[in-house]
Amino acid sequence: MFVHSRLRRCERVVWLAPSRAKEASLSTPSIISIVDDDASVRASMNNFLRSLGYGVHTFGSAEEFLGSARLNDTSCVISDVQMSPMNGLELLANMRVRGYAVPFIFITAFPDESIRARAPKAGAACFLAKPFAMPNLITCLEAALPQRGGVATDRSV
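RESULT FIELD:
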């Protein structure tokens, strides 16, 4: 791929891997809905996922997400487990009852073994204990969204 000669050395260029560029141009970005009662977690994941080319919506509670107009355009939900009044597992169950089959990735600062065991049985695609490494989140998203077109490749000029 041609990189314009006027780019300064410190600028970063993000492009699609050539073998997947055509597919990505034909697809729309996956929309990730982040549901977490911790504003700093929502903000950091929002910034990180947007930098990878995902569309992102953030919600401070399960109820806020369920009451939003974003249910139909969500490709994947990343949800905290420990929230109140509705926790992440209850959110997943509520979504399934409503007929939404989007993948769920659970994150928690309290990785209780009983919850870790219940999450996959409830239909979770992935379970991460906070703090987690962002590459682990990427691995979970790739598993949850195998149909996503285009792989962003980050290169320094």
